[in-house]
Structures are given as C-alpha cells and as structure tokens.
Structure prediction request, 498 residues.
Amino acid sequence: MNTETLIKKIEEQINSFEKTVDVTEYGIVQAVGDGIARVSGLSQCQASEMIEFENGTIGVALNLEEDTVGIIVLGDYLAIKEGDKAKRTGQILSIPVGDAIVGRVVNPLAQPVDGNGDIKKDVDQLIERVAPGVMTREPVSVPMQTGIKVIDALVPIGRGQRELIIGDRQTGKTALAIDTIINQKGQNMKCVYVAIGQKKSKVMRAVQKLESAGAMDYTTVVLAGASDSSALQYIAPYAGVAIGEYFLDKGEDVLVVYDDLTKHAAAYREISLLLRRPPGREAYPGDVFYLHSRLLERACRLNADNGGGSITALPVIETQGGDISAYIPTNVISITDGQIFLEAGLFNKGIRPAINVGFSVSRVGGSAQTKAMKKTAGPMKLALAQYRELESFAQFDSDLDPQTKATLDHGAKSVELLKQKQYSPITMAKQVASIYALNNGFLKNIERQDIQKWESEFYAFLEASKSSLLADINKGWEDATQDALKAAITEFNDVFTG
Prediction:
C-alpha cells in the first residue's frame, strides 16, 4: 500500500469517526436485608428500572427517594453486601417472550424452571403496560366455554371478561380454573396459569394434570412459589399478563388465571412495609387498589382495527370464613365484571362445584352465551331462585301443597344435575340437551339419586347415535332442532326407564 492510499484511508477513518461516550451510572449499596437494598448515587434512576448488582443479581427500583433508591431484589439478596456497587441498566423491567414459551413452566422473570432447556425469545416484553383505551376495545360478546354446566348456564364468561373466583380455602377454586384451561382444547385459546405463593408440589400436580389432558400444548405456567421471595410473587401476575399480551398483539385469544391475588396483595404489603411506605387499612399500603386495577384492566377484547384479540382474566381470591366484605375481596369485586362465589357449606354437603348461584353473578350476562344456551338457561335460573326461597320449608314436607312439593322436587333435581366431577368438562351442546330435558319435565319420573346416572348415559346415547343433533345445537336453536331434541330425549327415556 503506497503512502497516498494510506493517507486517504486515515482521512476516511477520521471523517467517519463518531464520538460516543458510554456513561453508566453506578451507586453504592447503603443497606440490604429482607430482599430490599437501599442504594445511594443513582440520581437519574427511573421507576421500575432494572438495577444490576456486582454479583450479577437483578433488582427493580421501586422507591425513588431524595438520597437513596429502594430496590427489591429479584434473586438471592444474601450475596449482596453493604458497599457493593449497583449499576443502572437504563431498561424498564421486562421479560423475554416468544412462541417457544408455550408449554413451559417459568419463573416470573420468564426463566425456565421445568428442566427442559432454554427458551428462544422473540421480544422483550415490558411487564407493566398501560391498559388499552376505550376506543380500541369492543364489547364482550363471544362466549368462553368453561365446560362447567353451572358456570356456562348461569354465570357465563365471555372472551375479554374479568370474572373473579372467590371462596374459602379448599372449596375448589383452583379446580375450577384448571378445568376451564382443560376445556380450551381445540378452542384456539392460549392459556397462562400464574401460581402466586402456592406450594410448588401442588402446582406441579396441576401441571401433570394439564399434561395428561393435553392442555400444556397451549398453556404457560408462571410459578412464584411459597418459598420464593415476596419480590418475585409481586411481579408474577404482571409477568403472566405480559406473556398474554405478546399473543394478544398477534390477534390471538388468551386466558390468564391469577391464583391467587390474596397472596399477591400480602407480598406487596410485605415489600411496602420493608420499604417504609405508610401503612393503611390492615397495614396494606394506600395504593393496594391500584395494584390490582392496573393488572386487571389489561384484560380486554380489542376491536378488529387493533388486531381483534382478547385477554380473559380469572383472578382468584381467598376469603376467611366466607367474608366477601373484607378489604381485598371488596376491592377486586369492584374491579371485575362479576364473581363466582364458592361456599364451604355447599362443598361439605357434596354439591360440587360448590358455587352459590345466589351470590354469583356475571355482569356480561346472556351476551356471552350462545342462542341455545341463553334460551335454555333462563328457566333454570328462575327454578333455582324459587328453590332457594322454599328450601327452608322443606323440613315441613307433610304440610306442603302439591305445587310447592313439585317446585322443591324440580329445584333439588336442578341442583343434582348441576353437580359435576373434576377434570370432566362437558361440551355446550350436551349441557343444553340435559338442561332442556330438566326444564321441560322429562326428568319428572326420574328419581333424584338417579339423575347423575341418567345424565352420563344420556350423553353417551347422544354421542353414539345423535351426533348430527349436537352439531345442530351448536349452530343455532331452531324449532326443528328443539323437536329433534324432544324426540331424542323421549327415545332415550323409554330405554332408561324401561
């Protein structure tokens, strides 16, 4: 290379040189303990920014004070010492998300905990995002079938709805949520199950059940177990909805279960008290309502111009002694579009799912039901309401007039028909067929103790010889369909009673 060429090359390098200075702001850890670190020197730090400590542990800036930043540590805080350096990353808390996350069990940082290798990421998704505005949404009108008769008939859930599952411990709240996920098979629905503060053994049993039902093919489990830190339990539901929003942005329908938000509020209370935020009622911080409203408002159904996807939220709340007027339950009831109330008394009587139909409500109502189910379920609601009114008189059986006896008998058979075993979801068409038979007096001569046997054999009969009728019920509710259903029920009853 001659001298002229060399000079020319050097001039090109000088002309194309860009002066860039990489500035990283470092702080010093002043105090650390109980999963909280106080760091001074991070004057430009942003709220919810990820902070990296010397040993590689990640934290999140939650309290921005005059001299220090209060940071929750998302990892082992015992390895952080006073005097350690902490540097700003300039990145708001986000998690790696991609199509490969489906079928996996991950922690709230979207790191796999199922031992099946790394997960390929497509994007970094912010775990906190502003909920879609009013003009981008659409009314909830597409049913989300749970496969549970009492819910689909009396407390219907639509895609994009927020329906609270509330009740005492050990009343079947998680079972309802798992059954709903299992029923989404073939419904073109992605599912995210967020376990907050649960025993890991219990969660892994649920995962095994989902695997055996083939539901893990479209489900992601976000696990922040009872042994995990409060910081991880606090970010878990936001991570769950962030995964849901990745699929929402692609125009898909998503179901997110938060199990449960009582433990989430307790984790946030613990963090807030350690950060020395002022306590309010029951020692919860003043923004505990905002904690859940900003989470649940992200559930929505978008209009066609914005992709047409939806996120349906099923938050779970645990009550103490059936008290739904406590602080956290009333907060979440006021945010959601209805609640499914599970009662310990019904559960102990053997009525399962133990749903109290009187206290349960869906504010979306019949708009989230098919025509066939809407027409069929109406009379059943009335029958159950009358039964509840008269139930207290049932002990005076001998003194009751025939009309009251008939109402009580019909109500008792309705309760019996709505019983359902766990992990056995029922299709909408079969539900309509059995409820129609009850409403129209076809079960009048069937003893109450034989209702469940009648139901299972009736479903088998429909599957074996009336599959076209089931397809017709799914399509609509024409007079011809009703006539065919009446004929099918009569035909079956002749065999069953004969």
Q: What stands out?
A: The radius of gyration is 28 Å. The mean pLDDT is 93. The chain is about 40% helix and 20% strand.
